[in-house]
Amino acid sequence: MRYFLKKLAVMLATLLVLSFLSFAAFEMIGDPVTTILGTNATPEAMAELRAEMGLDRPLFVRYLDWLGHFVTGDYGTSYIYRLPVKAMLGEKLINTLVLTLMGFVIAVAASIPLGVISARNEGGWLDRFLTVFNQIMMAIPPFFVAIVLMLLFGLLLRLFTPGSFVSYKDSPIGFLLYMIFPAISIALPRAAMTEKMLRTSILEEMQKPYIQTAYARGRSRQSTLKAHALKNAMLPVITFLAANVAEMLAGSIVIEQIFSIPGIGRLLMTAIGQRDVPVVEAIIMILAVWVMMVHFISEILSEAFDPRMRS
Q: Mind listing the pLDDT tens digit for each residue in 140-149?
């Protein structure tokens, strides 16, 4: 319980510091009043709009006000569109999170069995093939994989229509089917790295004394690998996958552009260009909370499997 509370406190403190730094940074980047009214606006009009938007108050007061609203689910109002930020995010946030989650699931589902197979057949033709394939996948950026998949499966084989995004509100099945190839684009490089790491971790475990003891007791290589080595080899892999969630989120933002998915990545780029600070702050903090939660869960799981992880 102490370990859990300690990690929870660290996560909350990190989010608090990040929230203030991001708020202060984006508040200082540019004046949204100038963006809205233009440089030819009169000083009186600019002062009036600044007061209306609450920008005439001290930075720290505005931060505390924003933080109090944010933790209750009120993300403020867009400076540009004058709409609630929460309403603007809505479906876009779900699209991005589903895309990232599908990519994560595909990466895990592909990398773990392949890592075990590769380690079990160390030096064999399948192990050599997977090693070469992994090197290729790790060298290719996700956006290039996305372009290849779109050309091959979209334009040539016509398994889906590029650009014809299907909302989950209109067709949940159509939505998931459209998300498959974008998710694969995100997953392949991560799966390749995870498979390689798991293979290396298993082979290192197989050289440890407790494995040799199991051999001496008559256990086969396969049963020893499944019963002993795999569990311990998975610990660094869990941490590695959690550390890559942020990269997968960043990758999903790029993939959204290629497959024309209306996600928060496109909204974030637009909001930054327009100095729409409430939208930018809300997206950054939501993504930060999600990434930190994944790290938190991975650390708790690692500690549950191996109490030596406690610090």
A: 888 888 889 9
